[in-house]
Amino acid sequence: MALNKTWNQHVVKKENKSLVLNVIQSSSPISRADIASITGLNKGTVSSQVTELIDEHLIYESGPGKSSGGRRPVMLLFNKIAGYSIGIDLGVNYILGLLTDLEGNICKENYIKIKDLSFDEIMEKLYEVIDSLIASVPSSPYGIIGIGIGVPGTVDNNGNILLAPNLKWKNIHLKEILEEKYHIPIVIENEANGGAHGERKFGIGMDTKHIVYVSIGIGIGVGLILNGELYKGNNGFSGELGHMTIDINGKDCRCGSKGCWELYASEQALDDYAAQLKLTSLSEEEISLESLLSLAEKGE
Ligand SMILES: [Zn+2]
């Protein structure tokens, strides 16, 4: 019984603390009194949680804020540079790496082009991008708190890549590989799911509960937000939508199926059409989205 009681107190304390931190994160700058009235916690509880959060460098006090009369309260702010995180968009023909603060503001970017590389070569490039971002992180109490990676394929709930046809990857335990190397939390997600989540949190989908996010690059991915939640389906449904058959007598696809959507509407499809039609002065190797766009801008 006693153990149980202590355990419950411990859980409640932790929940209160995270509640207080969440309110400061979303409504900073904010006074202790306003935190108490928003959360319904009593002032003593708020005060002791705030002290702990200040000691942990997750929040800080700033000068006095507006007061409705009487003494002006001290305001509390979220310390967005208590740590940093790394986000990677692992594309078929590029790797984009970002260093962000704890509010998701971009502090540093590293973009490299890749083409037709083996698994080992891609991993080497991925490490280079991650290492360069780690090397650039300013000193902070928590350092890099995690790495999130979007990949062009189906990902199961354990962060294993089941199939990434355009990279020719199958059953890659990317989360495990990276956790062993970097010893920090790693999140692997389908890139279109990641994009949908990003739009929901920071972009065009902030005010809506339902989003269909279509990511068109070398392949096609689709991420769905339904009722405010990322729809995961059975083990990574979204990576498969680009491989939905739209022409049963169509061309062969790298996924083993025929007539997939992305064979007709992706960046790769555009490059292929341009090469077939010999519309441009570019050689086949020179054709890319960028080179076609720049020709189009010149009126070709
Ligand atoms: Zn396919």
UniProtKB/TrEMBL annotation:
<keyword id="KW-0119">Carbohydrate metabolism</keyword>
<dbReference type="InterPro" id="IPR036390">
    <property type="entry name" value="WH_DNA-bd_sf"/>
</dbReference>
<keyword id="KW-0859">Xylose metabolism</keyword>
<dbReference type="Pfam" id="PF00480">
    <property type="entry name" value="ROK"/>
</dbReference>
<comment type="function">
    <text>Transcriptional repressor of xylose-utilizing enzymes.</text>
</comment>
<dbReference type="InterPro" id="IPR049874">
    <property type="entry name" value="ROK_cs"/>
</dbReference>
<comment type="similarity">
    <text>Belongs to the ROK (NagC/XylR) family.</text>
</comment>
<dbReference type="InterPro" id="IPR043129">
    <property type="entry name" value="ATPase_NBD"/>
</dbReference>
<dbReference type="InterPro" id="IPR036388">
    <property type="entry name" value="WH-like_DNA-bd_sf"/>
</dbReference>
<protein>
    <submittedName>
        <fullName>ROK family protein</fullName>
    </submittedName>
</protein>
<dbReference type="InterPro" id="IPR000600">
    <property type="entry name" value="ROK"/>
</dbReference>
<dbReference type="Pfam" id="PF13412">
    <property type="entry name" value="HTH_24"/>
</dbReference>
